[in-house]
Automatic annotation (TrEMBL):
<keyword id="KW-1133">Transmembrane helix</keyword>
<feature type="transmembrane region" description="Helical">
    <location>
        <begin position="145"/>
        <end position="164"/>
    </location>
</feature>
<keyword id="KW-0472">Membrane</keyword>
<feature type="transmembrane region" description="Helical">
    <location>
        <begin position="29"/>
        <end position="48"/>
    </location>
</feature>
<feature type="transmembrane region" description="Helical">
    <location>
        <begin position="64"/>
        <end position="84"/>
    </location>
</feature>
<protein>
    <submittedName>
        <fullName>PTS glucitol/sorbitol transporter subunit IIC</fullName>
    </submittedName>
</protein>
<keyword id="KW-0812">Transmembrane</keyword>
<dbReference type="InterPro" id="IPR004699">
    <property type="entry name" value="PTS_IID_sorb"/>
</dbReference>
<dbReference type="Pfam" id="PF03608">
    <property type="entry name" value="EII-GUT"/>
</dbReference>
Amino acid sequence: MDFLAQLATGFIGLFQAGGETFVGLVTGILPLLIVLMTAVNSLIKIIGEDRVERAAKFSSKNFILRYTVLPVLAMFFLTNPMAYTFGRFVEEKHKAAFYDSAVSFCHPITGLFPHANPGELFVYLGIAAGLTTLGLPLGDLAVRYFIAGVLVILLRGIVTERIYAVMASKKENAEVK
């Protein structure tokens, strides 16, 4: 009988812990995300959607900008998953590489701009909790994570663009035969 009582207590305890976590999110991160999303949407309206789109088109012309600035702007302004719609500004042959860059930036942006991808925030907050426990600052982690992310998305974009070009040329050669 004690076993069943302990099992029932543990079962209810699981839901109590879930409820406490939920309340922590509602009073902690959710208001922050709502305010950040409102601020970003306001910024887009202030700047003008047409200007944001022009900046995106300009960024798609150069490969460095295409795989650094464009994905960063897309994730910051449109957030995940809408960021991938910035792919409409790149040529067809660059779409796969742009997508690879943008999707690879979902994690690194969360430390500085959690509104961009709240779904990834749990991973960052897990790492941040460990650093906080050790008494280390989170700002350094967020900035380094962001910079490393920009370098990684540039490399991934270049490599994916090259892979796509090789595969497209093989397909083209196969169709000619």
